[in-house]
Amino acid sequence: MATALTVSVGQHTDKGRKPENQDCHGIRIPQDGLLTMKGIAVAMADGISSSEVSHVASETAVKSLLDDYYCTSEVWSVRSAVERVLTATNSWLYSQSRHGLGQYDKDKGYVCTLSALVLKHHTAHVFHVGDTRIYRLNANGLEQLTNDHRVWVTREQSYLSRALGVEPYCHVDYHALRLQPDDLFIISSDGLYEFISTEQLIEIVQSHPEDLDTAARTLINLALVAGSDDNLSIQLVRIDHLPHATSTIRQRLENLPIPPRLRARTVFDGYTIMRELHASSRSYVYLAQDNESQKTVVLKVPTIAVSSDMAHLERFQQEEWIARRINSAYVLKADLAERPRNSLYTVFEYIEGQTLAQWAIDNPKPDITTVRQIIEQIARGLHAFHRMEMLHQDLRPENIMIDRTGTVRIMDFGS
Fold this sequence. Notes:
Layout: E1 6-14, E2 23-28, H1 32-38, E3 40-46, H2 54-68, H3 78-98, E4 114-120, E5 123-129, E6 133-138, E7 141-144, E8 150-152, E9 158-160, E10 173-178, E11 184-188, H4 190-193, H5 198-207, H6 212-225, E12 232-241, H7 247-254, E13 267-268, E14 271-279, E15 283-290, E16 296-302, H8 310-325, E17 346-349, E18 353-355, H9 356-362, H10 368-387, E19 400-403, E20 408-410
Antiparallel strand pairs: 1-12, 2-3, 3-4, 4-5, 5-10, 6-7, 6-11, 8-9, 11-12, 13-14, 14-15, 15-16, 16-17, 18-19, 19-20
Helix pairs in contact: 2-3, 5-6
Region (Disordered): 1-23
GO molecular function: ATP binding; protein serine/threonine kinase activity
Domain Protein kinase: 271-415
């Protein structure tokens, strides 16, 4: 018998009568611990028709949500985690628009709608901006869960009042609702819902309970026959089984204890502490071995002194999230072990080498070629931050590592 959250899924998209499909949709159903900690994420984005690059916007919005949400700290709430991801995505899209045709005309920029669900434990978390819609169908009927961010000028003419990529900051609607067995969520682009009736939607979905993909294709074909002149996309997600009540899990994560100072050879949360690498008033850094994978890693643990400093603890967790998001040979990587944590700490790859500060002491008169190579690698690492619309804000020799091969990595970016 299933004990975890399980769903059935059907989805389909079609460019319709348009030359290109500017819609994008996706779903991620993780396994085991990640399913419990993060849940199931579903997303759909619709790029604006007036822009030749809006398909990039919709693909970026969906992919970044489905990838980056699962890189966020387990301590953050679903709302906080998703909103941080969407804020970063909106900043990137807006920046791209500002460097292209979108700087003169917002209708030509990297602009799209986004409607998303995160299904976790017994709760559906709804995120929405634009005019893509989310519905819920159950024994009580069909309910529209989102409001269209659209302004009507005339009966035939309207425009989006809110979307990703239009402004430096985008407010995303959010609300949460309790899940029930057999709840069926429907996410639809306007190219579909404007051309089929509520009765047709309910009838088609209910007539294909065992094949939601067929239901999705049937609805799109029905909208095309009815004259849809836009891209068409639909996702159907039915709740098949809910897990046992786990109301204490969120509370446990929010109240993860800060461990005491650890000693060598201590077994801690699946790691064996090898030695202490660094100690300060705000954190301890340890060299450790993952007892499951046998990898050598670095654990960073906050001190008891900062236990009441919530702003610092947020930045502490953010450092690991950033390390998971940035994929660069010149930036420190987070370790991706997915087992649940029982204390507050972060895990990073181990780099065998020295800081740039120590390297400068050991090499007081370096040759110009070596200096140039170091600077070039630092620049590449910073460029990886800037591509994600992030600034390091604490770049100094002590926060740059050089390994034994001469490769430079930027670290310590919680600020």
